[in-house]
Amino acid sequence: MEVLHVSAECYPVAKVGGLGDVVGALPKYQQRQGWIAKVVMPCYRTRFLIEHEFELVHQGGLWLGPTWYHFNVIREKHNLLGFDLYLLEIPGLIEGDQVYGCFNDLERFTAFQIGVMEWLNSWRHHPDVVHCHDHHTGLIPFMMNYCYKYDYLRQIPTVFTIHNAQYQGQFGWDKAYYLPAYDPWKAGMLDWNHLINPMAAAVKCSWRVTTVSPHYLDELCISAAGLEELFRQERQKALGILNGIDTETWNPATDPRIMHHYDVQTVRKGKAANKTDICRRFQLDETKPLFVFIGRLVYEKGADLLPDAVARSLYESQYALNFIFLGSGDPHMEWLLRQAEYHHHTNCKSYIGYDENLSHQLYAAADFLLMPSRIEPCGLNQMYAMRYGTIPIVRAVGGLYDTVIDIGDPGGYGIRFLQPSVWDITHAISRAMELYQHPEEMLKLQQHIMQLDFSWDKSAQEYLHLYAQLKP
Ligand SMILES: Nc1ncnc2c1ncn2[C@@H]1O[C@H](COP(=O)(O)OP(=O)(O)O[C@H]2O[C@H](CO)[C@@H](O)[C@H](O)[C@H]2O)[C@@H](O)[C@H]1O
C-alpha cells in the first residue's frame, strides 16, 4: 500500500513550524509499519537541497491560466529521511529559500498543486491514498474530483489534514482561471463566502478530513475563522488524530544539538548542566527557575500576553525567576518582547529569529515551558518539552487540552490554566514557582513526563487504519 503526502513543509528540508515536523516524521513511521510513504513538496533552495544528492525523475509542463511553466520532479537519492522525498521545481516561480510570505504565494502554491496533479497523472500506477496537508494543498482534492484533465485520478482516495484552520488561503474568483478546466456545476465546491477557499474546498472534496487533535475538531465546530458551519456539516467524515513526535530527533540522550546528554536516571544532573550553559550564554542567574517560550510570534500563540505576564510575575516574586523567549513573526510582538528584555534585562532575555539548535538547547535547559495559546490545534512544543523533562504550563485548548493533565488532577504532570489572560498566566507561573520549591517532587514529575509515550507509533497506526477504510 502506498501513500503520497503533499505538503508545503517537511523537516529537515524546509520547516517554518509544526507542519514541517509532522510531515518529516509521520511518513517515516508509516514506512516502518509496512506502508510505502512518499512526500512531495515545493523545491525551495534550502541548505538541504544544496547539501544532498538528487536525481531527476520526471519533467513536465503546466499551465497556470495562460502562462506555461516547465517543471521537474527530483528525488533525494539515498533515502536519508526514511522515505522517498520528491521536490517539485518550477523555475521562474519557486525560487529562493523562502517558504511563505512571497508576493506571489498564490501563484507559487497553485502552480505547485497543478504540477503535482500533472505528475500524478503521468504515473503508471496509482498511489492508494493522496494525503494533503493544510490549505497550500487544499485544491488537490477538488482537482482530482472535478478537473476533466485528471479524470484518471478520481478513484484515488484523498485525506486532508488540518494543522491550522486559521490560514485558509482564500482568493478572489477573478483568479479562477488559474485552475485547469473543471466541471462548472461544481464551482460551489470551491466557494466559501464568495471567495475561492482552498481549506473549505478540501474539507468538502476530500474523502476524509482529520485534525491534529480530537479536542481541536470539537472546537472547530464552534470557532473556525468563518468555517464553523462547514465543520458542523462535514463532522461525520472528520476525525481527530493526535500528532506524535519523532522520538529519535527529540531525544535528550542522543540529541547532537544539546551539550549535555541525559536520560530519566540522570535528568537532574543533565538538565542542570544544560541550564548552566544557557544561563551563562544569556547572562542569567542559574539558581532561579527558568521559564521559556518557543514559537511563532502570532496572536494565536498568545505571545502578546507575555510581556505583561513577565512584568507582573517578576514584581510578585521579587525577581525570583528568569525568562527566555525564542521566536519570530509579527513585528509588533517582536518589539514587545524586545521591550520586555529592555525593561527587565537581568531576568528576561529574548532571541528574535529562528534557531533550531537553540530551541533544542532551551527544551533541555528550562524548568518550565510556557504556552499561553489562544488557539492550538495540537502543539508539539509541550510534547518536546516533556521528553526533555521540562514541565509544561499550558492553556487548556486544542491539543494542549489533550496532552497535558494538571498536577491538581489525578495522574497530573503539568500546569493548566483556562483563560488566555495575563492574570491566568501569572497565576500559573506562581503555581510553578511553588512546585520549584520542592525539588524532590519536581524530579518525580520530570522523570514521569520523560517516560510518557508521545511517539508517532500509535498515531501512525491510526492513520493507517483510516486509510484502510477508504475503498475506491
Ligand atoms: N523561532 C523558532 N526557532 C526554532 N524553532 C522554532 C521557532 N518557532 C517555532 N519553532 C519550532 O516550530 C515547531 C512549532 O510547532 P507547533 O506545533 O507548536 O506550532 P505551529 O503553530 O507552527 O504548527 C501548527 O501545526 C502543528 C502540527 O500539526 C500543530 O501542532 C500546531 O498546533 C499548529 O498550530 C516546534 O518544533 C518549535 O520548536
From TrEMBL:
Residue stretches making up the Glycosyl transferase family domain: 279-442
Record protein name field: Glycogen synthase
Lineage top rank: taxon: Bacteria
Pathway annotation: Glycan biosynthesis; glycogen biosynthesis
GO BP: glycogen biosynthetic process
Keyword terms of this UniProt record: Glycogen biosynthesis, Glycosyltransferase, Transferase
Residues that bind ADP-alpha-D-glucose: 15
GO terms for MF: alpha-1,4-glucan glucosyltransferase (ADP-glucose donor) activity; alpha-1,4-glucan glucosyltransferase (UDP-glucose donor) activity
Domain Starch synthase catalytic: 3-232
Summary of the function given for this chain in its UniProt record: Synthesizes alpha-1,4-glucan chains using ADP-glucose.
Family: Belongs to the glycosyltransferase 1 family. Bacterial/plant glycogen synthase subfamily.
A Pfam family per the record: Glyco_transf_5
Enzyme Commission number: 2.4.1.21
Gene behind this protein: glgA
SUPFAM superfamilies: UDP-Glycosyltransferase/glycogen phosphorylase (SSF53756)
Species per Swiss-Prot/TrEMBL record: Thermoflavifilum aggregans
Catalysed reaction, written as an equation: [(1->4)-alpha-D-glucosyl](n) + ADP-alpha-D-glucose = [(1->4)-alpha-D-glucosyl](n+1) + ADP + H(+)
